Automatic annotation (TrEMBL):
It holds the Pfam family Aldo_ket_red. Transmembrane segments: none annotated. The lineage of its organism: Bacteria, Bacillati, Actinomycetota, Actinomycetes, Actinomycetales. This is Alcohol dehydrogenase. Gene3D superfamilies: NADP-dependent oxidoreductase domain.
Length: 319
């Protein structure tokens, strides 16, 4: 597929769905990861999102595995200038936190693993209140001025701390962050939408939104059905969704998907893609089958009636 529409974010152009890299080097081996990345780019996608901590939690891993896989892929394909590459700092066990020294070391290691000279978006992955925010902001700006990152992003920051980052950046003459990565989907909306919450603050400050957990840990794919026991690797992550109202959302997603001849995940992603302020939801795929609805969501158009129906059942289930 060619001609996939892109969306502006600062001086970048972003495909409307981003590919999450958390599974690369974890549940997707290198060969399969390459297949997924190739197919995503061939379909018109251009946003590849990872973190230096992915996937330290897997047995035998220490973090950096996803970046290494992506770096090997970038080195073997003439695609770097077509990719918006994002990574994050603060969760890799031996590079945790956001001190200036740690950021400097972590970034050099990320660049080495990614086999690139510059990261397009570099995120503070989780807030580190043990370090003065002035120090963290300055370290990101040093990296930007050194040409090692193009833009700053924030993930999992509270509205108050986002505002503080911006105030410090302005006082230091540092670049403002351009994007916020929040937990946001059809079921999880109440810390993003509403007065004074992340979505409003991001809009006021000119930040795009790139939501993670866009499919509610797989719950919105339709794989879990009402009345059936929940098991598997993510059972604990979807335990909060074991309510009739949440299954009502899934039922509606499944029905809309059937009407379009696509998988439910494509509908859930498309609804989120078109929420106010969203630049691109993120979704991961450990194989080509899981990638198919992500590709469909690059261009799937929901009707106003379908969008209203999804929002209505979401309103009853959201938290």
């Amino acid at each position: 597929m060619t001609g996939t529409p892109t969306r502006p974010l600062a001086d970048l152009r972003i495909s409307p769905i981003g590919l999450g890299g958390n599974v690369f080097g974890w549940t997707a081996d290198e060969a399969t990861s390459f297949d997924v990345l190739d197919a995503y780019v061939d379909a018109g996608g251009n946003l590849v999102d990872t973190a230096d901590g992915y996937s330290y939690w897997a047995p035998g891993n220490s973090g950096g595995e996803s970046e290494t896989v992506i770096g090997s892929w970038l080195a073997s394909r003439p695609v770097r200038d077509r990719i918006v590459l994002a990574t994050k700092v603060s969760t890799k066990p031996d590079r945790s936190g956001l001190s200036a020294d740690n950021i400097g070391l972590a970034l050099e290691e990320s660049l080495s693993r990614l086999r690139t000279d510059v990261v397009d978006i570099y995120y503070a992955h989780f807030d580190d209140e043990s370090v003065p925010l002035e120090e963290t902001v300055a370290a990101f700006e040093d990296a930007r001025r050194a040409g090692k990152i193009r833009h700053v992003g924030l993930s999992n920051y509270t509205p108050e701390r986002i505002r503080q980052w911006f105030a410090i950046a302005d006082s230091q003459g540092s670049a403002r962050p351009i994007v916020l990565q929040p937990h946001y989907n059809l079921l999880h909306r109440d810390d993003v939408e509403g007065p004074g919450l992340r979505g409003q603050v991001a809009a006021e400050l000119g930040m795009g939104l790139m939501p993670y957990f866009a499919l509610a840990a797989g719950f919105l794919t339709g794989k879990y059905r009402r009345g059936e026991p929940v098991d598997g690797d993510r059972a604990g992550m979807v335990s909060d969704y074991q309510r009739p109202e949440c299954y009502d959302v899934v039922d509606t997603v499944v029905q809309v998907a059937a009407d379009h001849g696509v998988e439910p995940a494509a509908v859930a992603l498309s609804w989120l893609r078109d929420r106010p302020g969203v630049t691109a939801p993120l979704a991961s795929a450990r194989n080509l089958r899981q990638l198919a609805p992500i590709v469909d969501a690059l261009s799937l158009e929901l009707s106003e009636e379908e969008t209203r129906a999804l929002t209505r059942v979401s309103d009853a289930a959201r938290f």
